[in-house]
Amino acid sequence: MPRLFTGLEIPPSVAQSLALMRGGLPGARWIDPENYHLTLRFIGDIDDALAGEIAGMLARVHRRPFELRLDGLSSFGGRKPRAVVAPAAQVPPLMELQAEHDRILQRLGLEPEGRKYTPHVTLARLRDSSSHQVADYLAARGHYRSAPFEVSRFVLFSSRASIGGGPYVVEEAYPLVANELRWAQRAS
Predict the structure, then answer these.
(1) Domains in the chain: how many in total?
(2) Minimal CA–CA distance to 98: which of 115, 83, 80, 85?
(3) Taking CA 104 as the corner, what is the angle to CA 3 and CA 62, rounded to the nearest 5 degrees?
(4) Sign of CA dihedral 39, 12, 90, 156
(5) Helix 48-58 vs helix 92-107: angle between axes, to the nearest 10 degrees?
(6) Peptide bond into 119 cis (omega under 30)
(7) Could you read off the pLDDT of 76-133 as tens digits, one per residue?
């Protein structure tokens, strides 16, 4: 039974700049840069038949490429921090793509996400890091801002349930193409 989610890959140059933020935080388990991604929609553990149906429905998503940037560093968890993340700009094309994934998966019988979507790249999972330590870390590195990058596809990732933080495998990739290209492809 695969554990699946949809997401965006992080370009190597951006992953490298994020990797420079690693270190200096007790209790942090840093994610390997090759496993950086931006989750669009968590799907979970499903059977192969539903996985095939999801892959087919995602192929019907037609969106244009768009530009994205990671802006700053923050944490999730409040007084009990559980992760250090690099938030993504909430640009309309990203938010619309995520909402479309959510609608598709709900039509296929999956429950809606329980929390508001907050696009981000997880850099570290935290164990026993105090809120003071995390605040100090963020004060020193929170100025981070990636170069803008083009999002030209989204992917269906699989992961192993027992690991957390990777490795992630691209099961299917779905290109985002400009409307003019799509019409040309249909006509040929």
Answers:
(1) 1
(2) 115
(3) 110
(4) negative
(5) 140
(6) no
(7) 998 899 999 999 999 999 999 999 999 999 999 999 888 899 999 999 999 999 999 9
CATH number of the structural domain spanning residue 38: 3.90.1140.10
Q: What is the pLDDT of residues 144-160, one digit of tens each?
A: 999 999 999 999 999 87
Q: Give the C-alpha separation, 168 to 159, whole Å.
A: 5
The residues assigned a catalytic role are 37, 120
Rounded Cα–Cα distance for residues 7 and 122 (Å): 12
Cβ–Cβ under 8 Å, residues 75 and 81: yes
Domain that holds residue 73: 3-187
Tell me the whole-structure pTM to 2 decimals. 0.90
Helix (H) or strand (E) holding 23: none
